[in-house]
């Protein structure tokens, strides 16, 4: 009996030791937990999927490009023959044939028969002309603000304070820059900008700033307003969180994120060369850069793949796109229009936190005008009234011979 009792006590002690060892392993794992171990499953959010200003920009961007082409070609009467733009579809970003695209928006582009050879012409409607003038007034009145946004983007590059012009042009739509601004930067930008020569014959745009001048991010300004940030280097700032309905973090990820919020905040405009790229502090800097970047954009959103060109210039990691997935309380990923769009939640959940872009209201008016085209086309289908093109023998330069024969039969 004594021997059996000793064996049972030994078994209990052994089991206790095993449990303690497992507990210590779990604690050590939790202490070693870094952003590399964090994996989040993407979750759809119907609120952000329904924002027209974000998802309609896929159609609005080529529409504005075509409108600008018409205005620059004919600034007096705002009309142009289809032959002048039918071959520029790729350049203008038109997803299909140019004439077919223009006919999708009769509230913006009015079709009529040209003076020669019965070719189709297109002109801007009166509403579109008024919106174009309003847009150009915004560029003039808000030029300082728009240039400041461009300057901030360049200053995020760290010590170099320079970005290739090719990269800036790739983000031109999101920054709301007018076409002529980057066409001749020497004439349209102030003295703090300078054009520099890069490798392979490329050109870059650099910024010269006074050493005493300090740029604050949106995060820093809002934290100062709340009285939780004094501006001391290495001070922590917590990101505002906006959970989506039904989204729950796993316990170990929630614990990691609580610790992540307590790490020092590294401003996107500070030197980041001394950071360990595999550290959680570097991860917080990446999130801060993406937060500031989206806050500078017109819709506070962008196609995720369009941001990949900034990896090297802004010192972002190779898999920077994963940061949007690791922080679903800060960013939202939308798969509308067969594209992955990254959206800054704070801009839509707290309207007073981020300043509205000067062009935002004008683009909303363009989108409302585009929506009117859907009603016009629907009424035409119901009434079965063809488009008035004058002579029925008009040849559409966008049509192939087969399509033309079908239209005549």
Automatic annotation (TrEMBL):
Coiled coil: none annotated. This is PORR domain-containing protein. InterPro entries: PORR_domain, PORR_fam. One of its GO terms (molecular function) is RNA binding. Residues 43-373 form the PORR domain.
């Amino acid at each position: 009996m004594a021997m059996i009792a000793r064996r049972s006590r030994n078994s209990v002690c052994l089991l206790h030791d095993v449990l303690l060892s497992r507990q210590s392993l779990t604690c050590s794992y939790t202490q070693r937990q870094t952003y590399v171990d964090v994996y989040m499953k993407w979750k759809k959010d119907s609120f952000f999927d329904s924002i027209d200003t974000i998802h309609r920009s896929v159609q609005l961007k080529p529409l504005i490009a075509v409108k600008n082409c018409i205005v620059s070609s004919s600034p007096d009467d705002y009309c142009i023959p289809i032959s002048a733009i039918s071959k520029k579809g790729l350049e203008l970003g038109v997803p299909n044939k140019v004439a077919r695209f223009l006919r999708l928006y009769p509230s913006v582009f009015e079709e009529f028969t040209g003076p020669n050879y019965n070719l189709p012409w297109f002109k801007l409607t009166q509403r579109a002309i008024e919106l174009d003038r309003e847009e150009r007034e915004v560029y003039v009145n808000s030029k300082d603000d728009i240039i400041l946004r461009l300057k901030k983007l360049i200053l995020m590059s760290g010590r170099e304070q320079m970005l290739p012009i090719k990269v800036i042009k790739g983000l031109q739509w999101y920054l709301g820059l007018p076409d002529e601004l980057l066409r001749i930067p020497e004439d349209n930008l102030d003295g703090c900008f300078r054009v520099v020569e890069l490798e392979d014959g490329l050109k870059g745009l650099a910024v010269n700033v006074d050493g005493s001048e300090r740029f604050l991010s949106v995060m820093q300004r809002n934290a100062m307003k709340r009285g939780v940030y004094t501006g001391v280097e290495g001070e922590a700032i917590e990101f505002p969180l906006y959970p989506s309905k039904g989204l729950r973090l796993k316990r170990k990820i929630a614990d990691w994120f609580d610790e992540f919020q307590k790490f020092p905040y590294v401003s996107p405009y500070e030197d980041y060369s001394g950071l360990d790229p595999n550290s959680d502090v570097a991860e917080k800097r990446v999130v801060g850069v993406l937060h500031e970047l989206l806050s500078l954009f017109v819709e506070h959103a962008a196609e995720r793949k369009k941001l990949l060109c900034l990896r090297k210039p802004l010192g972002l990691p190779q898999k920077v796109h994963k940061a949007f997935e690791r922080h679903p309380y800060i960013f939202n990923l939308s798969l509308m229009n067969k594209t992955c769009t990254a959206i800054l939640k704070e801009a839509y959940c707290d309207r007073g936190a981020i300043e509205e872009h000067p062009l935002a209201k004008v683009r909303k008016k363009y989108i409302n005008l585009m929506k009117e085209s859907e009603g016009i086309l629907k009424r035409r289908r119901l009434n079965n009234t063809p488009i008035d093109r004058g002579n029925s023998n008009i040849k559409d330069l966008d049509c192939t011979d087969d399509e033309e024969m079908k239209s005549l039969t």
